[in-house]
Amino acid sequence: MANSIQALRNLPLDGRLAGGAGVSITPAEPMSRVSLRVKDKDVKAIGKALGVALPSKPKTSNMSGDRASAGRCALWIGPDEWLVLDGEGADIAGALAKTKAVISVVNISHRNTAILLEGQNAVDVLRAGCPQNLNDDVFPVGACSRTILGKAEVVIWRTDEQSYHVECWRSFSDYVFKFISQAAKGL
Amino acid sequence: MLYIRCPYCEEYRPEIEFRHAGEAHIERPTNLAEISADDMEKFLFIRENKRGIIFERWRHIHGCGRFFNCVRDAVTDQIIMTYKSGEPKPSDAEIEKAILALKEEQA
Fold it and tell me: Which end of chain B is more exposed for a tag (fewer CB within 10 A), N or C?
């Protein structure tokens, strides 16, 4: 008789924990994610189908719920590109299955993973490796941007006054987590 | 480090987010199959490489991902202006104006 085996998908950063003075660093819970490319004329309709409007201003994001881990979030990445996250793991591409517009939807739920930074010094940890200006006046709550952290490309999203969501590729996540942990030690 | 204004992100970003992408405003011939080997060589390889004001393409690869055009002084390395790809090449007067504005900003 054949033995059945079960494939389990592990989070790349499962079980890790780090922090420093005034900052805690934790891997985010699994989410569903898509990389979305939409032409200008279809932006409104696609936003409606998703349940969250696609922001058109650079470096901004929209949330359907009151926090990032619940409901759907749309992050502006480029003029026709968005990163759509669903904290409850719902099928985002499914919500767009009926649209007639010509769009590109790529499921990247497992290509990306995220690290959450929380605390009054969270921004200083990011500043250790991110060349972008993260001051309050240009990077307020809700701001998001694709940029560099150390040697890896990341998307930094400010979800609250002292909370940052750092989205990176799964294969870079070990590097990014260690980089952030090391930076936190220097606080 | 250069500080480059991305016309799509509408703000200045550090150079490390960008990648240089060669000379700008090179028109691809519409009759590629018919042109001579010399013309093909010119289209593919021959670049101005001028001393002074140059036009080049940059890509905001670790940002919005877009290609755009940029006017740079090859002597001082100063970026004079950037504009979206597809927009017309700025005239000498426009470049002159941008240089003056930069000088005023620095003064």
Answer: C
Mind telling me how many Å the CA of A108 is from chain B's nearest CA?
Answer: 17
Question: Closest approach of chain B CAs to the CA of A73, in angstroms?
Answer: 18
Reduced to 3 DSSP states, what percent helix, strand and coil does chain A have, rounded to the nearest 5?
20, 35, 45
Residue of B11, B17, B65 with shortest CB distance to A78: B65
For A58, nearest residue in chain B (alpha carbons): B9
Cβ contacts (< 8 Å) between A131 and chain B: which residues? 1, 14, 16-17
| Alpha helices by DSSP H, A79-166 | 92-95, 122-127
Q: Which CATH number goes with the domain that contains A79?
A: 3.30.70.1520
> If one looks up domain B3-28+35-106 in CATH, what number appears?
3.30.2270.10
Question: Which tens digits make up the pLDDT trace of A134-168?
Answer: 999 999 999 999 999 999 999 999 999 999 999 99
C-alpha span between A150 and A61 (Å, rounded): 24
Decide which of A51, A73, A108 is a domain's last residue: A108
* Encoded tokens for B34: 């018919």
pLDDT digits (tens, 9 = 90+) for A70-82: 889 999 999 999 9
Domain residues for the domain of A157 are 16-30+110-187
Mark whether A38 and A102 lie in a shared domain: yes
Predicted local confidence at residue A69, as pLDDT = 77
